[in-house]
Design a protein that fits this description.
Layout (H helix, E strand, L loop, with lengths): L1 H22 L2 H38 L1 H11 L1 H17 L8 H35 L2
Length: 138
C-alpha cells in the first residue's frame, strides 16, 4: 500500500503539479514549490521508510527475495533524495537565489528530472508488490 501511495503521489507531481507550477512562471513556481516540498517531505519519507521496513519484514518472515527487492526499490528513494536531490532542493530554497534567473529555471527543470527517478523507483517497487500479491491470491 505504501509503495502505491508513494508512486501515485510522485507520478502526480511529475505529470500534473510540477508542469502546472512551471506554467505560472519561474518565480511563482519556486514560491509554490517551497511549501509543497516541505509538506511532501514528511509524507514521502514516512511512506518510503514504512514500505521498506514492511517489505523487509515480509522477506524475513519467509516471503521470498522478491519482497526484499521491492522494499529495496522503494527504500532507495531515501538515499537518492538525500545524496542526489537535496543539493538542488537546498539551492531552490536559498534566499540568495534570484527567483527570475535562468539558474532558477534550470534548478526547477533539474528537480523535475531527479524527481522522475523517484517516481520510477517507487512505481517499480509497487509493480513488484502487485505481482507478488497476485501470485499469492491464486
Amino acid at each position: 500500500m505504501t509503495a502505491g501511495l508513494f508512486s501515485g503521489a510522485s507520478i502526480y507531481v511529475n505529470l500534473v503539479e510540477h508542469p502546472a507550477r512551471i506554467a505560472c512562471g519561474t518565480a511563482p513556481a519556486i514560491a509554490q514549490w517551497a511549501p509543497s516540498y516541505k509538506r511532501a517531505t514528511v509524507m514521502q519519507a514516512t511512506l518510503a521508510a514504512v514500505g521498506f521496513l514492511s517489505a523487509t519484514g515480509a522477506w524475513l518472515l519467509g516471503g521470498g527475495a522478491a519482497w526484499l527487492l521491492g522494499g529495496i526499490l522503494l527504500g532507495l528513494v531515501i538515499p537518492f533524495t538525500l545524496i542526489v536531490i537535496l543539493p538542488t532542493n537546498r539551492r531552490l530554497l536559498s534566499p540568495n537565489l534570484d527567483k527570475e534567473s535562468p539558474e532558477a529555471r534550470q534548478l526547477l527543470d533539474r528537480w523535475s528530472r531527479l524527481h522522475a527517478v523517484r517516481s520510477l523507483l517507487s512505481l517499480s517497487s509497487f509493480l513488484v508488490f502487485l505481482v507478488l500479491l497476485s501470485r499469492s491470491s491464486r
